[in-house]
Amino acid sequence: MNFLAHCLLGHPHEALMAGGFIGDFVKGPVPETLPAELQAGVRLHRRVDAVSNRLPGIRTSVGRLDPELRRVAPVLLDILGDHCLATRWNRHGHGDLATFSASAYEAIDGYAAYLPDSGRRFFRRMREVDLFVRYLEPETAVRAMEYVLERLRHAHLAPKLDGLVGGELSALMDDFDGYFPELRSAVDTWKEEAGYG
Questions:
Q1: Do residues 43 and 30 touch, judged by C-beta distance below 8 A?
Q2: What average pLDDT does the segment 30-46 reach?
Q3: Nearest to 26 by CA among 45, 6, 50, 8
């Protein structure tokens, strides 16, 4: 899952929402210097990633990708998942997407001091362009996936992304509708056990 999904799964707890974003910028053991509630948010981020990677619906989606894209499938499907979530917000989201996005940015901003410089720069840009709402546009997902392929030195695979927002998109959205509730159920269990129920 990518940033929008992580923030939604942390809702309504601001620290869990913030950790859903900040977790991408925290490597290795969770630093004990972080506030306890933000540590929990980072741990939830990692739990979401671990559970989602094992879901049968994710494996179905991976199988829909061009064989050359499958080696980077997890990160591509994370990005595409935010597009699916934004376009199916009335089914999976909470309230209005624009209102939720604003509250998510506020939650992250409350803990932005714990982001490394690169994370703060990314967050400022994300908020300026309102990335969460822009995920309604397939072009936003494509640009993000192209950026990732370039960063991973697989820019030559970019033309193969066309199918992800073309012929395969409907099937990938159906996959998402199947596996996202499973992921949410796993998160609800984690929250109960961690005292955030």
A1: yes
A2: 96
A3: 45
The structural domains of the chain, with segments of one domain joined by +, span 3-194
The 10s digit of each residue's pLDDT in 131-153 is 999 999 999 999 999 999 999 99
Neighbouring residues of 130: CB distance < 8 A, sequence distance ≥ 6 = 98, 101
Instruction: Give the mean model confidence (pLDDT) for residues 140-168.
Output: 88
The reported pTM is 0.94
Contact 151, 8 (CB under 8 A): no
The pair of structure tokens assigned to 147 is: 């950026």
Rounded to a whole number of angstroms, the distance between the first and last alpha carbons of the chain is 21
Q: Please tell me the distance from the alpha carbon of residue 181 to that of residue 163, in angstroms, as a whole number.
A: 25
* Rg over CA atoms, the chain: 16
